[in-house]
Amino acid sequence: MPDRLRVLDLTDELAFNGARLLVGLGADVVRVERPAAAVLSRAETLHWHAGKRVVGVPESAEALDGLVAQADVVIESGPLEELAGVRAGSGAVSSRWPRAVHVVVTPFGTSGPRSAWRADDLVAAAAGGMGWLGGQPGGQPKPPPREQATQLAGAHAAIAALLGVIARDRTGRGQLIDVSVQEAVAATLETAAISWIHAGRYPSRNGGVYEHVAHRVFRAADGHVAGGYSGSDRMWTDLLAWMAESGEAADLTEEKWSDPVFRWRGREHVDEIVARFVAKRSAASVAEEGRARALPWAEVATAARLPANPQLVARGFFTRVLGEGLPEDGVTDVGFPFPAAEPPRPVRLTEPLPAPIEAPWRTAHPRGRRAATGTGRPLAGVRVLDLTWVLAGPYATKTLAEHGADIIKIESRHRQDPTRFAPSMRLRPDAGFDDSGYFINFNRGKRGVALNLRTEPGREVLRRLVAECDVVIENFSPGVLAKWGLSYDRMAELNPGVILVSMAGVGQSGPWRDAVTFADTLAAMSGLTSETADPGEGPQGLTFGLGDMVAANSAVLAVLDMIAAGRAGHVDLSQLEAMAASMGPAVLEAELGDSRAEAGSGDPRAVVRPNRHPRMVPHGVYPTSGDDRWLALAVRVDEEWRRLAEHTGVPELAALASAGLEERRGREDEIDDALAVWCSRHDGRSLAAELQGLGIAAAVVATGRDLVEADEHLAARGFYPVLDHPIAGPVRHEGIVIRMSDTPGALTAPAPLLGEHTDMVLKELLGMDEAELARLRDAGVLE
Question: What sign does the dihedral 585-535-600-140 (CA atoms) show?
Answer without folding.
Answer: positive
